[in-house]
Specification:
- With 256 residues, the protein is of the alpha+beta class.
- Helix content is 13%, strand content 21%.
- It has helices at residues 4-12, 15-19, 229-236, 243-254, and strands at residues 27-29, 47-49, 67-69, 135-141, 145-151, 157-159, 164-167, 169-177, 186-188, 196-198, 202-204, 220-224.
- The chain starts with a helix and ends with a helix.
Length: 256
């Protein structure tokens, strides 16, 4: 377990020296590291409990798959930091700088996120699906059936820190096998066997959870067809069609 003195010594090193020094799988408990320069360190797969990083410099720090328990990163500079898979549930990140940071699959449930500073290079912090207007989406159902959905302009929609999104209502346009060769009239949800998708019908979740940082919760879980082609290829080895076909179909269905 690293001590406060260890951390102070690390902060006096040059960036190059810190980058050559691995702190992977470290444990920190009840330390006040406010204002320290810890940039460039590798803290991946570490366990931090009751640690204050308030105002600390964590630029380009590897914090991937790290567990943060009751920690504060308020005002910390996390520019370029690797936070993918980090568990930040309930932590204070108010006014933290996340420019260029990678938050893919980071857990932000219950985290305090007021005044966050991000930019276009910040990965998986901004809403992944379209913020406004109708869009097409894909959903996997029981027996590997692929459901194509139209999410209307007035639908509530959220995303956490991954490619998948949720909405409160959508129209079922088609149900097919993943190779596209066989069509079906209905498909059963993987989570709720009573939630049946039927071609031509509108589906709605009345108790939709609007807190975007809760990923596994109520709502219609889906992949934005405009951005999900690569994801579906990787996960299901299925070609989802060209962007030209996508745009045309959105326009056609939105006017119906």
């Amino acid at each position: 377990m690293l001590t406060l003195e260890d951390m102070r010594q690390l902060s006096t090193m040059t960036r190059a020296e810190r980058q050559a020094h691995s702190c992977r799988e470290s444990q920190l408990d009840s330390l006040n590291l406010a204002g320290l320069d810890l940039s460039g360190l590798d803290f991946s797969w570490s366990d931090f409990r009751h640690v204050s990083f308030v105002g600390a410099c964590l630029q380009d720090t590897d914090l991937s798959d790290t567990l943060f328990t009751e920690c504060s990163l308020a005002g910390a500079d996390l520019s370029g930091a690797d936070l993918h898979g980090a568990a930040l549930r309930g932590c204070d990140l108010n006014h933290a700088v996340l420019k260029g940071a990678d938050l893919y699959r980071a857990n932000l449930e219950g985290a305090r996120l007021d005044g966050i500073v991000d930019d276009e290079k910040t990965r998986f912090f901004r809403l992944y699906c379209p913020e406004k207007g109708p869009f097409l989406a894909y959903k996997k159902c029981f027996n590997d059936l692929l459901v194509t959905l139209l999410v209307p302009a007035d639908a509530k929609r959220t995303s956490a820190t991954g490619e998948t999104c949720r909405c409160n209502k959508a129209k079922v346009l088609s149900i097919k096998s993943f190779d596209g060769k066989t069509s079906y009239k209905e498909a059963m949800s993987l989570v709720d066997p009573k939630f049946i998708y039927r071609v031509g019908q509108w589906m709605e979740v009345k108790n939709f959870n609007e807190d975007r940082w809760y990923d596994s919760t109520t709502g219609i879980h889906l992949v934005d067809a405009g951005r999900g082609e690569g994801l579906l290829r990787r996960r299901y080895a299925y070609y989802c069609g060209s962007r030209r076909q996508y745009g045309t179909l959105v326009q056609q269905q939105a006017t119906k």
